[in-house]
Design brief:
The chain is mostly helical and 123 residues long. The protein is 44% helix and 8% strand. The protein contains 7 helices and 3 strands, in the order ααβαββαααα. The longest helix is centred in the first third of the chain and has 13 residues, at 30-42.
Length: 123
Amino acid sequence: MMPTDRLFPKVAATMRDSQPMIANKLELSPCAVSVLGQLFVEGPTSDNNITNKAGRCDLVSAGLAFHEAGLSSLTPDGVRLARDWDLCSLYARRDRRWYSKVRANARPEGAAVSHSESGAAVR
């Protein structure tokens, strides 16, 4: 036992410590934003077709994407972030596919959520 152990006791890890960090839109590099849009529009994408491998690594480290067996795909948090991205900033981008997909899938405030999205049956 070290003399400082009484001053600084070791605290057990909490559930919060084990949760992956959800990235904020402002924390993502431009490369990561580009890959986020690509994976959102195209779905699982092979390593040969990823627009930026460094951007993919940023998304993986933020818990927004995963990379396995040569394919990259978004996690549910990555899909949620891509779907909730600001429409005005998406419209300003040159690639309109992300904007079109978010706009087509937008639900009005208070709209019913399907069984598959919420995990509970809708009445």
